[in-house]
Structure formats: structure tokens, C-alpha cells
Amino acid sequence: MSNYIVIKNKIKNFDKKISVSGDKSISIRWVLFASIASGISKSRNLLMSEDVIAALNAVKKLGIKVIIKKNTCKIYGKGIKGFKFRKNLIIDAKNSGTLGRLILGLLVNSNKEIKLIGDRSLSRRDFKRVTDPLSKFGATFKLSKNKNLPLTIKGVNITKPIYHYEDKGSAQVKSSIILAALNTPGTTIIKAKKSRNHTEILCKYLGLPIKVKNYNKFDLIKISKAKKIRTLNYDIPSDISSSAFFIILTSLTKNSKLLIKNVNINSSRIGVVEILKMMGVKIIFKNKKIYKGEPIADVFIKSPRKIKPINCPTKFNSGAIDEFLSIFLVAAKADGISTFNDLSELNQKESPRLMWGSKILNLIGIKNIMTKNSIKIFGNPNLLVDKKIVIDYVNNLHPAQQMFVINYSNYNNNS
Length: 415
Hints:
By secondary structure, the protein is an alpha+beta fold. The protein has helices spanning 24-35, 50-61, 97-106, 128-136, 171-181, 198-205, 240-252, 271-278, 324-331, 353-363, 399-413; strands at 4-6, 15-18, 38-44, 65-69, 72-78, 89-92, 114-117, 140-144, 148-154, 163-166, 187-193, 210-214, 218-224, 234-235, 257-264, 282-291, 294-302, 337-340, 368-370, 375-378, 388-390.
């Protein structure tokens, strides 16, 4: 217990309007699509996080010109076969699983060997889930410990279409295959468990040869070779995952209201909203519109008098995969027992999130029972957390998640 933080400031009730940073999923996808477009693409409000900067550096290494000036980024795309790079190229995906997995789909046609590396956390994650289907296109891979980074890829000049059943609900795997299929003769077919659909939406908006049929539990996606990708000017909307921290803080702060402007409310991303509404939080989408295929709205949140426990429907899991740690903290204040099932995919992220979630709950004095893919949380509406908070358990979390735990404890000390 050598590491701890002492909470001094008090969170008061509030009624505010805010804006949050650009959507990370769309930012990375914009960078990759702009790099293979024919001409200059421009974005505003691009999220300048480490993950997106890594994406920009990656396409620059592939011979693509990038200019950033104030809040605007320009990418000078050279077409779907326009990458030019030296031998023995190394691309560093840093901590970004989205970049690391998606960019491999763009490299299945490369005739030179490319090495992909990442930070310590990314290097522990499973890349075999994406290299297995991409190898069916004809690319060859060498992976560390048979499934991890660093890896090397060598593509082939002419790839062949594939059929793939994606049963993990991984948008990264699905998107990587789509990107590979856009430069592959014939028709590639993906039967995919429900997951984020930003890539499909971008393809449709750009008029690319993709067809999607939505079924109850999966999507059937057919992709043909694209002749050309047009440029894409994009004002990146606010990120629902970044907004979620503020949504949840409002949910936990009595007599509070918040309006978050211009947020991406894609149905594959708003699991956190649906779950919190079931727990009694008032959340309303205002000024809704469609922007380049994506639904955008101002999100209004009003804190509830009492938080209800939930037996969380698993249909919301994929749409809340990045927010469950924070949702667990709301369940900690519920008046009853909440259960969350089928969460094994949480442990496939940059840290074993399900395990960390259980540890954080233990840290703040909340009883919970965890299995390899589920957690039961025994909520306590009268929970009080000591102002001295041990942080050993949360050192491996994203900084925003660390700050949330701190703010959460601050709230409970003054509730």
C-alpha cells in the first residue's frame, strides 16, 4: 500500500454544457481511408491522441504526405495501390489495436516484408485472430509466440477473395478483412457477429462496392474490388467513449445535468447509454442528424434519485465494450445486485479489463463475484470510500479511467 492518492476537492452538483474530443474509431479509419484515396482529404477535429498520431506516422512511412495545421489535417492519398516504401520497413502501432489490425488489411498486397510492432501492452494481444483470415487472401505472416507482436507480413501482388465467419464480435478483424477485400478481385464474404460498423458506413458513404444484410445476431457483408476511392473531407464528431466518463459522473452526482455537444451516437456504440437508462439515468438525444452516414446528436443527461440494479442484456455488450469498467462503478451504487455476462472479450483489450474491474470494486469496498466471463456486483447506495485511495490496482488502466476512479471516490466521500 505504498502508492495512494489523497482526495481533497469536492464534486458539487452541476448544470453544464461541454464538448469532448473527436471520435477515435472514426479518426483512425479516416486516416487509413484517406491514405488510399485518390487526392487530398481533409479533416477537422481529428483526435490527436497517441493512437491517431501512430496512424498518421504509419501512413507517412508508407509514402503518404500528411500536413497538420491547427485543427485541420490534410492527407495526400495516392490511390488504392499508391503506397511506396523502403525495404525492412517497421511500423509501430504503439498501443492501438485498431491501427495494428486494420493496417494489416491494407498491406496484404505489399511485395516487401513489413514488420509491425507495438508497445508492451499491445504486444500481449492476440493478432492471430486477424492474421488467420488475412492469410487466406495470400499474405504470409510470422508472429511472435505464434500469435503476438512483433510480426512480419509479406503480401502478394494478386490476392484472392475469401469467406470468413467472424464469431468474436471484433470490429477490428471485420474491418481489416474489408480493407483487404477492397483491393482483391472477386467477392469476399464475411458473416460477422454484431460489432461496430464505422468501416461499413464509410464504405457506403464513399460509394464503394459493399453490401450489408443485417440479421438478428449477425451481419452478412459482401465486398468487391474497388476501382478508386474518392477523397473524404470529414468533421470528426465527438467520441461517445470519451463522453461516457462525463455521462457516468453526471449519473453519480446528485441533482446534476449535463449536455454534451455533437456526439457520435452510432447504434453499435451506445450500449453504455442503453444500460444506464435501464439503471434509471435520464438520457435524451437532442438535435439528431445524419452526417456522412453516422448519426450525431447532443446528449443530455440528468442524474437519477436512485440507481437501479440491472441484469444486463448481453445484446448491449459489444456496444459498451470500452465502458464496462465505468458501468461497474455505477452498479456499485445501485440498490441491489447487478449481473453482467458473456464478457470474456473484455480481457482481450489492452489490459484484462474484467479482472481490473473486479479489483477496483474490491478496492472501494464493493463485494463482487467474478468468473472468466461474468461478474456479479452487490451494490451499496450508502457506499463511502476512504479519502486515501490505493492506486496499485489501477496503474495499468488508461489515464482517463484512473481519473474516473479518483473522481468517483471523491463523489462518494461527499455524497
